[in-house]
């Protein structure tokens, strides 16, 4: 029976390992998706700042174009001053020129404001690009670690499945049926170790005499509380 108990214990460890791998298989794609989304969000943050600079530059160029047009208009108008014949026309002309100059002055101030804003946004963008570059490198590192873990888990999965198949062939059929029944009823755990007279499945005490028998590993003993198969691995007196 000791050999059969050892096989049951090893089978339990394999099944727990397989469950851990399967949990990872279920979790890793979600983690990769989350990292991809985070990667996109950070890149979009930088892109939005670049687009903001482009819009500001476009607005600046537009205003500079309008200002240049108005300045050319003033030059052409000043060139026609000799054609003015009355004082009234002259005063009206000067007033018109002054109005255009005031408007141009406001445009120049707006252009300077835009240039200052562009400089500030560019400074912020430069800082953000460095921060995002560090963050993206970290994200890529996390993705690479997950992908390496997936490769490792696949290899481990195949190895564990192969060993499991060997074990199940060596187990007595009645014991294997009992194992599967308990596994289904007891949250994947059929075989548990005993430590300090305590079942490590339900963490309730077992009778001292039963504990003594479990330590011999010579007979199949089930916990009187949770019904799991008890196993002595040599630790936890």
Radius of gyration: 40 Å
* Average pLDDT for all residues: 90
- Do you know the CATH topology of the largest domain? Helix Hairpins
Structure class: mainly alpha
Helix content: over 70%
The percentage of residues in β strands lies in under 5%
Looking at the overall shape, the CATH architecture of the largest domain is Orthogonal Bundle
Gap between N and C termini, in Å?
Answer: 22 Å
List unreliable stretches of 5+ residues. Answer: none
The main pleated sheet reads as: 3 strands, mixed
Number of separate domains: 2
Run of helices and strands: HHHEEHE
Overall, the morphology is: rod-shaped
SS elements, strand count: 3
* CATH class (first level) name of the largest domain: Mainly Alpha
- Oligomeric form: single chain
Give the strand line-up of the largest sheet.
Answer: 2-1-3
Our count of helices gives 4
Keywords:
single chain, mainly alpha, Helix Hairpins, 2 domains, three-stranded mixed β-sheet, 4 helices, rod-shaped
Detailed description of the structure:
This protein is mainly alpha-helical and 237 residues long. It folds into two domains: 28-148, Orthogonal Bundle (Helix Hairpins), CATH 1.10.287.1490; 175-231, no CATH class. It has four helices and three strands, in the order αααββαβ. It has helices at residues 2-79, 87-170, 173-185, 208-214, and strands at residues 191-195, 198-199, 229-231. The chain has a three-stranded mixed sheet with strand order 2-1-3. The protein is rod-shaped, with a radius of gyration of 40 Å. The two termini are 22 Å apart.
């Amino acid at each position: 029976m000791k050999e059969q108990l050892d096989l049951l214990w090893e089978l339990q460890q394999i099944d727990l390992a397989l469950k851990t791998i399967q949990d990872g298989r279920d979790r890793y794609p979600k983690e990769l998706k989350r990292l991809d989304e985070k990667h996109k969000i950070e890149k979009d943050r930088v892109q939005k700042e670049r687009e903001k600079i482009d819009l500001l530059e476009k607005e600046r160029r537009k205003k500079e174009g309008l200002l240049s047009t108005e300045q050319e208009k003033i030059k052409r108008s000043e060139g026609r001053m000799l054609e003015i014949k009355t004082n009234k026309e002259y005063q009206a002309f000067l007033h018109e020129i002054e109005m255009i100059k005031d408007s141009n002055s406001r445009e120049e101030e707006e252009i300077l404001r835009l240039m200052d804003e562009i400089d500030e946004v560019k400074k912020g963008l430069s800082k953000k690009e460095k921060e995002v570059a560090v963050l993206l490198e970290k994200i890529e590192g996390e993705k690479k670690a997950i992908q390496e873990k997936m490769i490792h888990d696949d290899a481990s999965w195949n190895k564990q499945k192969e060993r499991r198949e060997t074990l199940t062939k060596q187990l007595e059929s009645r014991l294997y049926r009992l194992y599967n029944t308990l596994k289904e009823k007891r949250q994947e755990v059929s075989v548990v170790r005993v430590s300090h007279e305590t079942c490590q499945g339900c963490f309730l005490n077992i009778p001292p005499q039963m504990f003594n028998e479990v330590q011999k590993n010579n007979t199949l003993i089930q916990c009187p509380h949770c019904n799991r198969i008890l196993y002595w691995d040599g630790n936890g007196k």
